[in-house]
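Possible race condition, two jobs.
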Amino acid sequence: MKRRILSGILVGLLSVSNVFVVNADIDINPQDELIIQEESTEEESNDNVESSVVNNETKESIVFDDTDFTEEEKEVETLEETAAVKTPISSIGRIQAVRENQTTLITLLTTEYAKTMLDESFYLDFNVLEGISLTYDSSNEKVVRVEKNGKIVICGSGEAVVTINAVYEDQTQSVEAHIVISKVDQSISMSTATITKKYGSAKFQFKASADTPVTFRSSDENVLTVDSKGYVTIVAKKNTKSAYIVVNAPGNNIYNAAPQKKVFVKWTKADQKVTVSKTTFELGNKNKSLGAKAKTGMSFKSSNTSVATVNSNGQITVKKVGTTKITITAKNSHRYNSAKKTVTIKVTKKSQSIIASNKTYTVGAKSKSLGAKAKTGLSYKSSNKAVVTVNSKGQITAKKAGTAKITITAKSTKNYKSVKKTVTITVNPKSTTISSLSSSSEKKMSITVKKGSSVSGYQIRYATSTTMSGGKTATMTGTNKTLTISEVGNKSITYYVQVRTYKTVSCKKYCSSWSVAKSVIVKGHSHSWKEIYETIHHEATGHYETVVIEGAWDEPLYEWRTICNDCGLDLTESDPVLHSAEFGHSYSTKHVKVDTIHHDEVTEEAWSVDTAAWEEKILIGYKCTGCGTMK
C-alpha cells in the first residue's frame, strides 16, 4: 500500500480504486499517515493505477501513477491545483484524512452563530473526515435555508438549528449548529431638536430620516399640526406656547424600530397691523364705516367729537366740516400682540346732484323752463346763443335750428359742494302742411307744401296705412314734387301722405314734426304695347391666303481690319508695327467685307372675305311703354 499526504482546497471524495478527491484544506500532523486502501483484483494490481485531480482553472487532469513512487521516497507531495470534481460532499469544511480506528466523522468548530439581516450568506465551520457524504436540514426555513453546497442563506429574523448529517459506509453522525438572526438597529437623524416660529408664519417642513420611512405626530394638535411629509403648521388654538413633533421610524423585516425622538417647537405671538380703507366722509353720512381691519378686536376714539364721533364698531357719524384724528387699537390676544394706528378723518361738505335732461324745442315756440333741480341755487349758460338762449330762471328760447349745450351750475354753500351738469338742447325747424295732393296720371302722385321759413328742404312720407307703417320717404328742395309710385299695378291704390321740413346745419339734418296725413288715390296703369326685336349678328365668311410682305435679300457684313498697303496682308491679329519695320511697308485701317448674311422672304396669312357680315332682326315679344312690362 502506498501512502501520500495531500493539502489544498478539496471538494469531495470519489471512491474509485486509487482515486480520491476532497474539498477542504487538509490539516494533518506530519506524523499522521493518510491510508489509501486498495481494493483490486490481481489483474488490476498489475496495471498502473491512476489518480486524477481536475484543475479548476486549466480544466486539465493531473494523473498520479503509483509506480512513480519508491519505498525510499518519503517526502510529502503537494498538489497546488484546486480540485473541482462533483462529489456528494459539497459543503465548505475542513476535511481530515481518515485515520485507522477513527469513529468521529464530523466535528463542528463553532456551534453558535449570531448574524444580522444585512449579513451575507455564510458557511458553517467544521472538520469532516475524508470520504464523508453530507446532507443539511434547517429547523426553520423562514429564518435560514441551506443550499446543497452547504451555503446558509438568511431569510428572516429569529432562531433556527441547522443539522449536518455525515454518512461514511455504515457509520452515521449528526451535528447541530444554533443560528440566531437579528434585525438591525437603526437611529433617527434630525436637522435640529428645537424650533421657534411666530404664529402666522408660513407652513414649514421639518426633515428627519432613518433606514425606514419616518412618521410624524403632534403631541398637541391645538398647538401645531404636522402632515405625513413633515410640513408643520402653527395653529395655536389655545394659549399653550409649545408642543413636540414626535418622530418615529417603525421596524420592518430587516430593521428594529428606532428609538423615538422629539422635536421641541415653541411659538411666539405675531405682530399685527391695523388698516383703514376710508378716511373722507361727507356731511349727512350716518354710520359709515372706517373699513378698519385687524387680526383681533378693535377699539376706537375720536380726538374731536364736534367734527365726528366713532362707535365701538368703527362707524363714523359726522357732525360738521373739519378734521379729527381717530385712534384705533387692536387688542392683545394669545396669538397676536396689540397694535395701534391713528388716522386723520376729513369731513367735507355734502355732495349734491342736478336733475336735468336733454330737451328738444321748435324754432319760435314759446319759452319753456328747462326744469332743472338741485339742493342750492342754479345758474345757466348757453354755448350757442344764436340757437338757444336761457335766462336766470332756466327759461329756454329757441332761436333757430341747431344744437346748443346748457351748462347748469349748483352753487356752493356752507353745507353743500358746488356741482355742474351739461345738457344738450336740440332746436328743430317749424313744421309745414300739405297745400295740395293729387294723382293726375297713372302711378303718379303730385304734392305741394306750404313754404317753410329758413329751411333747407322738405321730406315726404307716404304709406297705404294710416299708421304709416312700412312707409317710404322722398326729399324735395322746392315746395312741389311729382312722385312715381312703382308699387301701383293695374288697380288704383289709396295712399296716406305726410310732410315735414328739415334744416341742414354743419352736415347734420334737423327735422320738424310730421304734418297731419292726407290721402290720395293713385291711378292704376293701362298697358300700351310695343313690338320688341332682337338683332342677331352674322359674322363674315372667308379664308386665309399667304401674302409676301418682304422678298428675300442678302446683307453684306463688314469689319474694320488693319491691312498692309503694299502687300495687302491682314495684320489685325498680328503686330502691324513689327511688320512695317521688317518689310518697310505701310498699313492702314479699312472697312472690309468679311461675310454675307442671307435673309429669307417674310410672309403672313391674310384673311380674304368671301361673304360680308350682316344683321338679322327677330321679333321676341312686346313691352308696355308705360311700365315696361313684357309679354
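Job #2 (started ~2 s after job #1):
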Amino acid sequence: MSNTGELKRLGLSGAAGALAFALVAVAPAQESEIAWDDAPEAVRAAITEHLLAAVGGEIETEMEDGVMIYEAEVEIGEYETSIEVGADGTLLEREEQIADAALSEPMLEAISGAAPGAEILTVSRVTSGPDKVETIEVTVSVGGETREIDLTSQGELIADDDDDEGDVDDDDDDDGDDHHGVGDDD
C-alpha cells in the first residue's frame, strides 16, 4: 500500500493528511542519513505502530552511548508527536504535544510558582524508559526569555531550565541543582 493509502486507511486525510514527517537523530555524534527502506524493519514497525504512520523518507541516525537511536516526528495540525527508538524497535521515549487545557490545577500552580507571569508556549507529555515514566514538559516565555519547566504528572516541579542562559541552577537557591526542594527559599 502506498504511503498516501496508508494515511487514508488510518483516517489521516485532509488537513491531518498534510502530515509532516521527519526522522532526526538525538545526539550530535556520528550522524548519517539513510533511506526509509534501509532502516531496520523493527524501527519502521515501531514508527508505524507508535506514530500510526508508515511514511517513507530519509532517516538520520546517530550513535548515543554506543547505541543507534532513531527519532521520528509526525505533525498533525498544530501538534507534534515524536518517538525515539533503538535499532531493535524498542521504544525509548515518546513526546506528544498536548493542549494547554490538559494542565491540571496543581500543574498550573507549579508553573506559576516557578515562573510568575509566564506565558505558556508549548506543553508536551513525555513517556520514557522501560518503566514508562511520564513527565510534562512546559515551555514558557518570561520577560522575553524561554524556559522549560518539567513536572510530574501530579504537578510536582522536577526541573526549571532557562533555555536561553543554559543555567541548570535556575531555582534561585544557588545549591547547584535546578530542583525546588523542601525548604528551598523561593
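The helical segments are 3-9, 14-17, 41-51, 105-114.
Logs attached separately.
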